[in-house]
């Protein structure tokens, strides 16, 4: 079977774009060298935090637009699968310490702050409150996206490693895999931090270590975005703590220093974490691009589109990226959002 569009990489960007393309009746195949959804999209914390992350300029615009896409996007996915994606617009509290003041400070009064989040550390004296930021359980979301894509007819092949492109006359003729060649009308490179293995794009891995606890009392009511640690409660009582940002290539593993810094920063804000059992530790590789701007759209090959470089915000940007990438692939340049982000999409890599 020859696909209209062949997507390389089964992370959130590849699968979300595949699902979006099926709405236009396009026959889509995805090839993934491991298991879909086990890259950065599995390792993430799932914060939807354009404001708490203090994004600026185009990145803030992208982030807020994509955050606005979320409720409807989740509704559509859940309508296909009948299962929850763990989307929770719980708000994000960014604590301030020892009388620190900022123009956008929301809570000045500690007793008022404690009504929002009891049991905060003594040095927390105020806080910023981002009511529209929130989170999604990225692992549940990936499971749902994969199921939805399969139910909508996307052909997903796991364990297929793409090793290169065969090209002629400025077009990709086929992709080379360990199992042979695959041919499609159009190709999307969505291989996250590994994209540079296939195309000379300026994408580098940035490792992040994370860990989780379980709080049977469910004391955390919203995301806490503290200096050097963010603390994300899931609705089932799991608390996710992240994340280091390390420029160490693809070096795997958890380090004592990494976990130590996350724990000490987090316990300073929420002392009760010290009594909880650690349930899991893990790490992943964010796809970092220059100026942290994702690489979306044109490449030197006419029929190859790129969708990578989502760095710290790929879960947040996924619905908007899938919208932009699918319209770009379909040549729907009159789409209002494509028009708005045209310089980004046309910036050939
Ligand atoms: C620790 C950590 C915390 C994060 N927290 C957040 C957060 O709170 N909020 C947020 O919005 N974002 C967060 N992110 C960022 C987000 O996870 C990423 O930006 C996003 O998941 C990138 O998605 P992707 O599909 O591009 O990449 P991935 O999910 O990495 O998927 C790429 C896939 O391509 C496959 N692949 C690679 N090469 C090949 C090949 N040659 N052939 C076939 N398949 C190939 C890989 O196996 C992989 O499955 C975090 C990331 C990390 C690591």
CATH superfamily of the largest domain: FAD/NAD(P)-binding domain
Total beta strand runs: 19
Per CATH, which architecture of the largest domain? Answer: 3-Layer(bba) Sandwich
Structural class: alpha/beta
Please outline the major beta sheet.
7 strands, mixed
Walkthrough of the structure:
- This protein is of the alpha/beta class.
- The chain has two domains: 3-76 and 137-203 and 290-346, FAD/NAD(P)-binding domain (3-Layer(bba) Sandwich); 92-130 and 204-284, D-Amino Acid Oxidase, Chain A, domain 2 (2-Layer Sandwich).
- It is 29% helix and 30% strand.
- It has helices at residues 12-22, 40-43, 57-81, 110-116, 138-151, 256-269, 314-329, 336-340, 342-346, and strands at 3-8, 28-32, 47-48, 87-88, 92-97, 124-130, 134-136, 155-158, 162-168, 171-177, 180-182, 184-189, 204-214, 223-226, 229-233, 238-242, 278-288, 295-298, 304-308.
- A seven-stranded mixed β-sheet has the order 6-5-14-15-16-13-17.
- Helix 1 packs parallel to helix 5, helix 1 (12-22) packs across helix 7 and helix 3 (57-81) crosses helix 7.
- The protein starts with a strand and ends with a helix.
- The model has no long low-confidence stretch (mean pLDDT 96).
- Bound molecules: flavin-adenine dinucleotide.
- Residues 8-14, 31-34, 38-41, 43-47, 161-162, 190-194, 197-198, 208, 210, 242-243, 284-287, 308, 310-316 line the site of flavin-adenine dinucleotide (FAD).
């Amino acid at each position: 079977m020859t696909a209209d569009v062949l997507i390389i990489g089964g992370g959130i960007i590849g699968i979300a774009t595949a699902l979006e393309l099926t709405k236009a009746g396009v026959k889509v195949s995805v090839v993934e060298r491991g298991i879909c959804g086990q890259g950065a999209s599995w390792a993430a914390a799932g914060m939807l935090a354009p404001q708490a992350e203090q994004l600026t300029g185009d990145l803030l615009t992208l982030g807020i637009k994509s955050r606005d896409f979320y409720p409807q996007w989740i509704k559509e996915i859940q309508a296909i699968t009948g299962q929850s994606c763990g989307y929770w617009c719980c708000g994000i509290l960014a604590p301030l310490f020892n009388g620190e003041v900022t123009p956008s400070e929301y809570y000045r009064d500690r007793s008022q702050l404690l009504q929002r989040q009891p049991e905060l550390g003594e040095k927390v004296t105020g806080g910023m409150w981002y009511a529209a930021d929130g989170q999604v359980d990225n692992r549940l979301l990936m499971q749902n996206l994969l199921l939805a894509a399969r139910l909508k007819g996307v052909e997903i092949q796991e364990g297929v490693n793409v090793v290169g492109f065969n090209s002629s006359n400025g077009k990709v003729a086929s992709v080379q895999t360990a199992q042979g060649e695959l041919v499609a009308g159009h190709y999307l490179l969505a291989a996250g931090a590994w994209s540079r293995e296939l195309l000379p794009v300026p994408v580098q891995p940035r490792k992040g270590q994370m860990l989780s606890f379980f709080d049977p009392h469910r004391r955390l009511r919203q995301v806490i975005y503290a200096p050097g640690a963010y603390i994300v409660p899931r609705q089932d009582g799991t608390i996710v703590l992240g994340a280091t940002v390390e420029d160490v290539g693809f070096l795997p593993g958890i380090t004592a220093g990494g976990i130590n810094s996350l724990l000490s920063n987090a316990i300073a804000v929420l002392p009760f974490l010290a009594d909880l059992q650690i349930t899991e530790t893990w790490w992943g590789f964010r796809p970092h691009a220059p100026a942290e701007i994702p690489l979306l759209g044109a490449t030197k090959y006419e029929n190859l589109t790129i969708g990578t470089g989502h760095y710290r915000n790929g879960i947040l940007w996924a619905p908007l990226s899938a919208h932009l990438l699918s319209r770009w692939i379909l040549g729907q340049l009159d789409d209002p959002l494509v028009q708005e982000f045209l310089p980004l999409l046309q910036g050939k890599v």
